[in-house]
Structure formats: C-alpha cells, structure tokens
Amino acid sequence: MAEIIDGNAVAQSVHAEIRGELSKLNFSRRPCVAFIRVGDDPASVSYVRKKERVAGELGMESRLHLLPESASQEELDSLIDSLNADDSVDAVLVQAPLPPQLDERKTFNRVRPDKDVDGFSNANLGLLCQENPRAFVACTPAGIVELLKRAGVETRGKSAVVVGRSLIVGKPMALLLMRKGMDATVTVCHSKSENLARICAGADILIAAVGRPQTITADMVKEGACVIDVGINRIPCAEKKSGYRLVGDVDFDSVEPKCSKITPVPGGVGPMTVAMLMRNTLNAYKYHMGL
Ligand code: NDP
Q1: Which residues have a Cβ under 8 Å from the Cβ of 250 and sit 6 or more positions away?
Q2: Within 10 A of 88 (CB to CB), how many other CB atoms are there?
Q3: What angle do CA 267, 125, 187 make, to 5 degrees?
Q4: Is the CB of 280 under 6 A from ligand 1?
Q5: Does the annotation count 158 as an active-site position?
C-alpha cells in the first residue's frame, strides 16, 4: 500500500507558517493580492473564490476585479497597469484561461515582476532558469517541491520524469527538479514523445501534468516510485449534484498499489498551489515593505 501524500495537511502547515510570520509583523497595512478574472468560466470562478477565501483566512487582503468575457487587451492591460502602480497592492494574479481575443503571454508579462506571484512572466521564468532565489516560482511546481520535501522523497541523483511541458507546470517543474539541492536527473515528455510508457516506467519520481484522465496506468509505473498527479479533469458523474467529479491524470486505483507514495486528486497538488500563492504574496509584501 502506498503512502497517500495529503496535500491538504501539508498546505495547512504552510498556512500555519505564514500566519506565524504575519503575526510577528506589525506594519501599517496587510499583504494585499489583487485577482483579475475575465468572464465567468466556472472553474476560474471556483479557483479565484478559493484563493480569496484562503487569503482572508490568513489575514491577507484580497481584491477581486472582474472584466466581461468580451474585454479587450487594452482594457485588461490598463487594469494591470493601474494595479502595478498601486502601492497598496503587493500581488497581481490574472486567472487563466483567458478568452481567445486576449494574449496570455502578453498579459502575464504585463504584470510587474515583483508583483507576479504566479511566476509566469518572462522575468521570473528567467530568474528561475538562473536558480536565482529572488524568482517567484510558479505555484503548482513550487507546491510539488514542498510536497516532495515534506513527504521525505529523496530527489538527489534520482530519475524524475515530468509528463507535460507547459510554461506553468511542466517546464518550471523540470527546472526545479534539476536545480542544485534537488539534483534529480530529469526527463520531460509531451504529446510527441515516443515510448512514453517505457520512459515513465524508469522513473523514481513520476509527475503527471497532462490534462487527460488515466494517462498514467500501472504498467507505466516502476515498483516503489513516487507518483505526483497534477491533473484536474472534470468527468461526468450522474451521482454528483454538480454532474461531474474530479479525477487526475493517473489511474489511481491501478497505480496506487505499485508505488511507495502518491498524491490523490482532489486533495493532493491543488491545495499546495494555493498555499504557495499565499507564500509568494507574503514574500512580495515583505519585499515591498523593505523587510
Ligand atoms: P497544458 O494543456 O498546457 O499542457 C499539457 C501537456 O501535456 C502538454 O505539454 C502536452 O504536450 C502534454 N500531453 C498532452 N497529451 C499527452 C499525451 N497523450 N502524452 C504525453 N503528453 C501529453 O496543461 P497544464 O500544464 O496547464 O496543466 C496540466 C494539468 O494540470 C491539467 O489537468 C490542469 O488542469 C492541471 N493543473 C492543476 C493545477 C493544480 O493546482 N493542481 C494547476 C495547474 C494545472 P504538447 O506540449 O506536445 O501539447
């Protein structure tokens, strides 16, 4: 039986650390994170609500800015510019995905690097490549590093396979695993990779960030591996009031008996993404307050 890595529990300890740090700071204003949501995509509504709730629970201020689905790039840019210039705002987060008329990369780069707590801008991705500790690191991969550390997973010299090469999960994940201190030997796979099953089966640490249910099956997992499931997929479910249930990219039931540690979906990586966002916001605040 694998150890189930409880992302909720680890996120709670990160929240406690943040609360502890905040309680020691006696300053004129609280950390403030501004959320921008364009349109009413149900998943985005739910993610932003969750982030606002956790910020509130930790004693941070959050502000929600809503733009219509039809918003132009100029409107979005001008809102970002005003938040960039607002000294009472430490962090600016534009919830993705954006409607098709908006350019995500351009948008992420519009956010001032010292307020880019998502770590999606060219500036922060560049700092991450250079292993610069000043980088804001994308929250999902940063959260996975915390999960691995706190679950006692050895990465040094180990073979890590990341399935997925997106700028927000796969690529920064690979960079974090290979950087000094983590010292894994990293392979990155994607939709054109040949022999995916064989490559995955060689992994001591297997990270699935694909966005397709059941991509990782038991035959693709090495006995005793640690498996991290990043995927969040909604699949129809008549028994649920919502009409859907969440599953990851890993076929949990077949994979779990084979591995040493595994994250569930939900309750694995997801809560850590939010926890890392809060930590990045605290760090942005400390930077702006000269602490
Ligand atoms: P993207 O769609 O941007 O990237 C998916 C990656 O998977 C791509 O690199 C793609 O390859 C690769 N891929 C697709 N199909 C296959 C396949 N059959 N075999 C191998 N690789 C494949 O997704 P994201 O990185 O943004 O997100 C991945 C998943 O993680 C999603 O389910 C998303 O919802 C979830 N997620 C969860 C978060 C959390 O907090 N838990 C946060 C962010 C994302 P190619 O590049 O060739 O197209």
Answers
A1: 208, 214, 215, 216, 227, 229, 231, 262, 265
A2: 12
A3: 65
A4: no
A5: no
Entry pTM: 0.97
Closest C-alpha residue for ligand 1 atom 41: 270
For the chain, 291 residues long, give each residue's pLDDT as a single digit of tens: 899 999 999 999 999 999 999 999 878 899 999 999 999 999 999 999 999 999 999 999 999 999 999 999 999 999 999 999 999 999 999 999 999 999 999 999 999 999 999 999 999 999 999 999 999 999 999 999 999 999 999 999 999 999 999 999 999 999 999 999 999 999 999 999 999 999 999 999 999 999 999 999 999 999 999 999 999 999 999 999 989 999 999 999 999 999 999 999 999 999 999 999 999 999 999 999 999
CA of 162 to the centre of ligand 1 (A): 10
Atom of ligand 1 nearest to the CA of 233: 32
CA pair distance 94, 98, nearest whole angstrom: 9
Question: Does the C-beta of 140 come closer than 6 Å to ligand 1?
Answer: yes
What is the DSSP-derived secondary structure letter of residue 216? Answer: B
Residue with CA at minimum distance from ligand 1 atom 8: 164
Both tokens of residue 38? 């364009």
Which CA distances in Å does 107 have to 48, 72, 131? 17, 11, 24
Whose CA is closest to atom 1 on ligand 1?
Answer: 166
**Is 51 an annotated catalytic residue?**
yes
Judged by phi (left if over 0) then psi (alpha if -120 to 50, else beta), residue 156 lies in: beta
Annotated catalytic, 214? no
